[in-house]
Amino acid sequence: QVQLVESGGGLVQPGGSLRLTCAASGRNFSINAMGWYRQAPGKQRELVAIIISGGNTNYADSVKGRFTISRDNAKNTAYLQMNNVKAEDTAVYYCNSIVQQGSTSRSYWGQGTQVTVSS
């Protein structure tokens, strides 16, 4: 079993910045990919950004140039730096990790952290 714990959400003004953190913990696992998803009220969960084990990244068009995903492999931690945030970035942000445990690959989710962009 692997646990993902997110932190860093909160209230931020439009144009401001926020950094989300996702820490993975457990036994005998390696991380193939870590990603951030978000879900706004009344909308489906959507991919925000993902980083794979080789360091390649992919972003939703709506956040390109504003958000940056990074990862500290030694700490099994991923970060989402959010700059120039907009009201439409308001959502619950979820961390996801694709984890390898032996010959099995599994997907785990964090509990979510609320990000509210408002003046």
Task: Give a description of the structure.
The protein has about 120 residues and is mostly beta strands. About 0% of the residues lie in helices and about 60% in strands. The chain has strands at about 1-5, 10, 20-25, 30-40, 45-50, 55-60, 65-70, 75-80, 90-100, 105-110, 115. The protein is elongated. It starts with a strand and ends with a strand. The model has no long low-confidence stretch (mean pLDDT about 95).
Lay out the secondary structure.
Elements: E1 2-7, E2 10-12, E3 18-26, E4 30-39, E5 46-52, E6 57-59, E7 67-72, E8 77-82, E9 91-101, E10 104-109, E11 113-117
Parallel strand pairs: 2-11
Antiparallel strand pairs: 1-3, 3-8, 4-5, 4-9, 5-6, 7-8, 9-10, 9-11
Give descriptors for this structure.
single chain; 119 residues; mainly beta; 4-stranded antiparallel beta sheet; 0% helix
Mean pLDDT: 96
Order of SSEs: EEEEEEEEEEE
Shape label: elongated
- The share of residues in extended strands comes to over 45%
- Uncertain stretches: none
Terminal residue distance: 40 Å
In short:
The chain is built from no helices and eleven strands.
